[in-house]
């Protein structure tokens, strides 16, 4: 370097450092939040990262708050205005999801739709799900809802006059619906094993892993994740590989009108040893799915479609048992509209106005996914606060759906609030009510999920009269919840059915 170049390099370096320093001090402030400790930040508050914990913090810090979890930034959104900023105004920046080490491993490095980053692959997978897998035109999924609801009604009728664990009943129902829609009936015998695999996945998704927050402390592994993760994925591989091989051998022809295609059949039409994504409109030429993609999407469907629907059904029944006037009113509507001489049918739904309000009010008070997760793909601002790139953004549906500025008496179950003109719907444009999310990452299974919820609740209410067991009063019903992927009832709902129809139930 000659004598003239040397000072120029020094000046350039000083200018760059000065520029970075000025940008840093001019940077907008982070959202408000509790002070953290060096290195660990607010990690001692980890137990407050639940819908209720974050709602409590929002009362003190407001609709947007910041926590430092180890080296990562966490932003909690708890008001409709802030949710609109994140999910609509800056949807393109918050369209990714944060994946923990466990999630990345169990989804074959985000080979699914729910955790893959927003981009061409996600867009094609979304098209596949919306147009093929969860489409209303896939009659088999809708048939499996009707058949399994029938089976549930029969199982309940057999227990007339006895306490029925409604919580377990509906969790069994939704597993059966989704299992059948995904795999068809040929592999039903492996269902128990599959449920065990799902349960281990649920535990692993929720397990605390220090390495997610302070990467160089990955060797501290009290939950045994380093051995449990490979074991769980190997069990899933064994299970689904066998099903895929059976389907390949069966060689079902897609498009064959008489053949009953399950979701694995639908996906195998796009199967290739090597994945491929093209941005063309013709889906068949646009996307090729590997085995890992197929397995990961099956897990999306299992996790997205079972606990969510089951928790909505159980909460609807629990809130009605807890609020006898609402139970009486909705059953009277079923009697008036459908009568007692036949079972309720899908075509009745549009005239069941109050019933629809019951479902909405349940989803308002108990959003099945109480906190949705997003990630900022670049540094940005929300409400004038700085949001660093890669922040984990938790949108607290539970807090938003009970915001006192938008909802009168928000903690009271009152379906009639949805009878008023202009009351919010769940299409994602009313940011005070987002049970299915909003924007690019909103729920692609909404139609199927709603259909299953409405069918199950309508049949349980129309076919039976329900009493709480052992003379329990409605006010004594435990209405607590637990936080996980969903927020189901902490204590399962148990009630005693008596048939109320004049026709045979089966
Ligand atoms: C009552 C039933 C259901 C509720 C309340 C529900 C709710 C949600 C919510 C809140 C999200 C996240 C939205 C966001 O991040 O903004 C979501 C995503 C998703 N749901 Fe559902 N869901 C239900 C049923 C279903 C069903 C039946 C399926 C599939 C068969 C399904 C599949 C998915 C998938 C794959 C995603 C991820 C989408 C993406 O990241 O692009 N859901 N759901």
TrEMBL record:
MF annotations from Gene Ontology: heme binding; iron ion binding; monooxygenase activity; oxidoreductase activity, acting on paired donors, with incorporation or reduction of molecular oxygen
Gene3D superfamilies, per database record: Cytochrome P450
Protein's cellular compartments: Membrane
Chain residues that bind heme: 443
GO cellular component: membrane
Its membrane topology: Single-pass membrane protein
InterPro entries for the chain: CYP450_84A, Cyt_P450, Cyt_P450_CS, Cyt_P450_E_grp-I, Cyt_P450_sf
UniProt keyword list: Heme, Iron, Membrane, Metal-binding, Monooxygenase, Oxidoreductase, Transmembrane, Transmembrane helix
Principal subcellular localisation of the protein: membrane
Top-rank taxon: Eukaryota
Family: Belongs to the cytochrome P450 family.
Name of the protein in its database record: Ferulate-5-hydroxylase
Taxonomic lineage from the root: Eukaryota, Viridiplantae, Streptophyta, Embryophyta, Tracheophyta
